[in-house]
């Protein structure tokens, strides 16, 4: 499946930025803009992962391997040649690790933005909490304000609700509906979070690095120690939460370029 995607930059280093659960490629556009300006040698691809954004519908049974294959296929279809540098936030990081296992010759390196190779426990999954609220929201409404009110009424912050309603589209009747299949995403969420991806970090020749947010629980101290022991450097952004590219963009960019 060739995914909906954005491109930026005219360089020769193929760099693929992969967003998190419920997001889209444009979530990482600010990072791509800043990185491209600082390093013109790169060419950036920002796909909407399978089942997200404009990459619909999601085929039944989609898993991390499916998503990884779609990313590589899209990169090749869009003209990116040579081994790819994959940079993934949250779900995007897990897709990156899966790609390095499924097609190692296509992947030069993996950079993890606040995610580890371990299965994600349900009680640590912020996306799971958001998904539960999303599943309770109406399928359709007269306008975005109604959906937004339903989301905030279930405890979501206003910025998070504003981000989610970007996934609403107009209906022929004049109202709005969700662009994606919420139940299919719920099923995908369980599959991708339950996958153990340590083989991608601990295999011989793996080239993986990770940065974690100091206010996030996604990468535990034990995970960080195990990654370091496997030769995967782990950096910390003390003031950042899970969305490291939003909370500390300049510090993240400096770390990305300090390779």
UniProtKB/TrEMBL annotation:
Q: Where is the AB hydrolase-1 domain?
A: 16-253
Q: According to the entry, what is the taxonomic lineage of the organism?
A: Bacteria, Pseudomonadati, Myxococcota, Myxococcia, Myxococcales
Q: What is this protein called?
A: AB hydrolase-1 domain-containing protein
User: What species was this sequence derived from?
Assistant: Hyalangium minutum
In the record, what terms sit under GO molecular function? Answer: hydrolase activity
Cite the Gene3D superfamilies for this sequence.
alpha/beta hydrolase
Q: Enumerate the UniProt keywords alphabetically.
A: Hydrolase
Q: Which domain of life is it from?
A: Bacteria
Alphabetical list of SUPFAM superfamilies matching this protein? alpha/beta-Hydrolases (SSF53474)
